[in-house]
Amino acid sequence: MTDYVKFVDVTKCDGCRACMVACKNWNDLPAEPQEFLGSVQSHKKVSADTWNVLEYIEHENGRGDLEYLFRHSSCFHCHDAACEKVCPEDAISHSKFGTVVIDHDKCVGCGYCVQNCPFEVISLKTYKDKNGKEYRKSQKCTMCTDRLEEGLQPACVTTCHTGAMQFGQRNAMLQKAQQRLQEVKGRFPNAQIYNPTGVGGTNTIYVLGEKPTVYGLPETPKVPISALAWKDYAQPVGKMMLGATTMAVVGAFITNRLFNKEGKGHQENGGDRNE
Ligand code: SF4
Ligand code: SF4
Asked: Which of the listed residues 80, 121, 143 should we mutate to test ligand 1's pocket, taking the one with most ligand atoms within 8 A of CB?
């Protein structure tokens, strides 16, 4: 597997939102009109039909000036992806490019991935079958894996007119991020690279102009311990002892308890949900 990374340099972004439009176009996602939020930001956050959102953050900098910070937000394509770990159907996996993709034929819409993503970038969408019966599937940014298969870059990267996004092999992108960090430190003393180790590093890495929390990002996101215990220990041992079919029934019960949304704290999840 070659590890590909989308490098987002937020200090070059001018907030034009072309990445949002390109994503909608390429992935054939419907428009999603929103109530006025009291800001120029168009959507509160990503959803099942809006896989990236350009965030506008009003920020008072160290010189006492008010400035806009921008951030292209979408799936991080974590190395240790919590969504992948908790999925009882193995519907989420890493592609040969290192991107995290969902097999919609396998997804049963249980929502455990939604509840466990440390960045809140995966959502459930409700559909109706030909008999009018409702069913749900998880949706999120695919890093345009279908474009990567054709030797193209993600649509958002291709369309970005300021060069705020680049796409390439991990080491090359990390080098570019390091170089850019040195260049922007004068203007942004708190600038840093965001590639958190708690989720094994990510395949969307940022140069941020400020601390992660200023952008609404967790400082040290982690794969929830319950997710690790479930995928790495309970599932394999259970399958060995009980067989795959029995384990699936037991699993449905246990995951429901383990990952029950009720009462989960903010720290693991970071805020509002997308259901
Ligand atoms: S950001 Fe969330 S949805 Fe994306 S790979 Fe990581 S855990 Fe999965
Ligand atoms: S909704 Fe359930 S089955 Fe579908 S991808 Fe998420 S965890 Fe897997």
From this structure: 121
138 Cβ closer than 6 Å to some ligand 2 atom: yes
For the segment 155-209, what is each residue's pLDDT rounded down to a tens digit?
999 999 999 999 999 999 999 999 999 999 999 999 999 999 999 999 999 999 9
User: Are the CB atoms for 99 and 5 separated by under 8 Å?
Assistant: no
Distance CA 272, CA 52 (A): 16
Report whether residue 111 contacts ligand 2, using a CB cutoff of 6 Å.
yes
Alpha carbon distance 107, 195 (integer Å): 28
Which pLDDT tens digit goes with each residue over 102-138?
Answer: 999 999 999 999 999 999 999 999 999 999 999 999 9
Q: Residue 60 belongs to what H/E stretch?
A: strand 53-60
Residues 100 and 119: their CA atoms lie apart, in Å, by: 14
Q: And the tokens for 48?
A: 């099942």
> Is 140's C-beta closer than 6 angstroms to any atom of ligand 1?
yes
Strands 134-139 and 123-128: antiparallel
pTM: 0.85
For residue 231, the ligand closest to its alpha carbon is 2
Taking each continuous run of H as one helix and of E as one strand, the counts in the chain are 10, 10
Ligand 1 centroid to Cα of residue 101, in Å, is 10
92 within ligand 2 shell (Cβ under 6 A): yes
Give which of 50, 25, 32 is closest to 123, Cα–Cα: 50
